Amino acid sequence: MSSILDLIGNTPLVEAQTLVKNKNVKLFFKLEGNNPGGSVKDRPAYNMIKSAVERGDINENTKLIEATSGNTGIALALIANLYNLNIELVMPENSTKERIQTMLAYGAKVTLTSSETGIIGSRDYAENKVKNEGYVGLNQFANNDNWKAHYKTTGPEIWRDTHQKITHFVSSMGTTGTIMGTSTYLKEQNEAIQIIGVQPTDNSKIPGIRKWPQEYLPKIFNPKKVDQVIEISEEEARAMTKRLAKEEGIFAGMSSGGAAAAALKLIDTMEEGVVVSIVCDRGDRYLSSNLFEE
C-alpha cells in the first residue's frame, strides 16, 4: 500500500498543441499541479522534512517555522502533519484565502504579516523567532535539501520523459530550488542543454517569481547554473496564464504563465529544439484574486 507521499513527483509532461508555430520546436509543459499538495513545492517540502527527520535535526517536539508566499506552505502543512510535526507558516496578509484556508485545513498554524513588507517581512518575522524564541526554520532559501529534491526527481523525470532530447529548460525563479536542482542534473547529462530562468520586470508583481534584493538573494542560488534570464512583465504573465487555460486546457497560476511566456519568447529565437517549461501549480489557488477576470 502507498501513502499520499508516494504520489509526489512523476508528474505528466504534455506537449503544447496551439502555442508553438515553429514545427521544428516542441514545447512541453511539466504539470506540477498534479502533485498531491497541488504544486511543485511538494518535492522540496518532502525532501526538507524527510531529510531533517532522518538526520535527527527535528522531531515531534520541534517548533518549526517557515515564511512562504503560499505553495511551499501548503506542501509543508500537508507533510509536517503526516510526520506529527508542529509548524507555523508565515505569509503576507494579502495572500489568497484559498492558500491560507488550505494550510489551516492541513493542520498548520498560519501567521499573517503586513502586505506592505510582503514576503521579505514574513522572512524577517520567521528569522526573529528562530533567533529569539527557540523555533527551528527549514529556510527553503538556504536549504540544500530544497534543490536536491529536484536533482533527485524533477531533472531525471524530464530527461527520461523527453527521451534525452531536451535542449532547453525554462523555470520561474523564486527560491530558485527548481532551477538549481534541475539544472545540476540536466547539465550532468548534457552540458549543451540551456537553462533559462524567468524573473519579473521591475515593478511587476508575479506571485511565485521574484527579483530579490541582494541581501535576500537565496543562498542556494548559483548564477553559473543559469544560462539566460528572461524578464516577463505582469501583463505578459497574466495574458499567458489565461491563454494556457483557454488554448491548452492548462489551468495554472501566474508564475506558470510567466514561464510559458518566456518559453515562447525563447522559441522565437530558435530554429529547432525541445523545450520544457514548468507549470508550478493549479489555477484554483487564485480564484479569489482578479487573475482570471476579464
TrEMBL record:
Sites where the protein binds pyridoxal 5'-phosphate: N71, G174, T175, T176, G177, T178, S255
E.C. designation(s): 2.5.1.47
GO BP term (any one): cysteine biosynthetic process from serine
Membrane-spanning segments: none
Key word Amino-acid biosynthesis present: yes
UniProt xrefs under PROSITE patterns: CYS_SYNTHASE
This protein's UniProt keywords: Amino-acid biosynthesis, Cysteine biosynthesis, Pyridoxal phosphate, Transferase
Residue intervals of the Tryptophan synthase beta chain-like PALP domain: 5-281
Molecular function terms from GO: cysteine synthase activity
Functional pathway: Amino-acid biosynthesis; L-cysteine biosynthesis; L-cysteine from L-serine: step 2/2
The protein's required cofactors: pyridoxal 5'-phosphate
Catalytically driven reaction(s): O-acetyl-L-serine + hydrogen sulfide = L-cysteine + acetate
N6-(pyridoxal phosphate)lysine modifications at: K41
Family statement drawn from the similarity comment of this UniProt entry: Belongs to the cysteine synthase/cystathionine beta-synthase family.
PANTHER family membership: CYSTATHIONINE BETA-SYNTHASE
UniProt protein name: Cysteine synthase
